[in-house]
Amino acid sequence: MPSQADDKRQAAREVIDILHEISILLNTHLDRTELSLCVSLIENGVNPDALAAVIEDLRKESASFQRLSNAPATAD
Q1: Residue 34: is it exposed, middle or buried by C-beta count within 10 angstroms (0-12/13-18/19+)?
Q2: What pLDDT is attached to residue 72?
Q3: Using CA atoms, how far apart are residues 18 and 12, in angstroms rounded to an integer?
Q4: How far, in Å, CA of 18 to CA of 15, rounded?
Q5: How far is CA 37 from the centre of its chain?
């Protein structure tokens, strides 16, 4: 017989599965682990709009660093 904790874990997995499907449809590029972390942060009081803004900023910075690291070196 499953315990109450097992039921909660299963329900949490189902929620993350549903959120992941929505994430795929919305093309967010968040995996299940990232979604789980976002949900946890929001459940602990983080503003969802602020979290989304931080994720967007981090992606922009990451793309910028990747462009810089892939740029050909210039000879001085």
Answers
A1: middle
A2: 74
A3: 10
A4: 5
A5: 7
pLDDT, tens digit only, all 76 positions of the chain: 678 888 888 998 999 999 999 999 999 999 999 999 999 999 999 999 999 999 999 999 998 888 888 877 665 5
Residue the block writes with tokens 């929620």: 15
Q: Is 51 exposed, middle or buried (0-12, 13-18, 19+ CB in 10 A)?
A: middle
62-66 contacts, C-beta under 8 A, 24 or more apart: none
> Nearest 10 degrees: CA dihedral of 48, 49, 54, 60?
130
What distance in Å separates the CA atoms of residue 34 and residue 47, rounded to the nearest whole number? 16
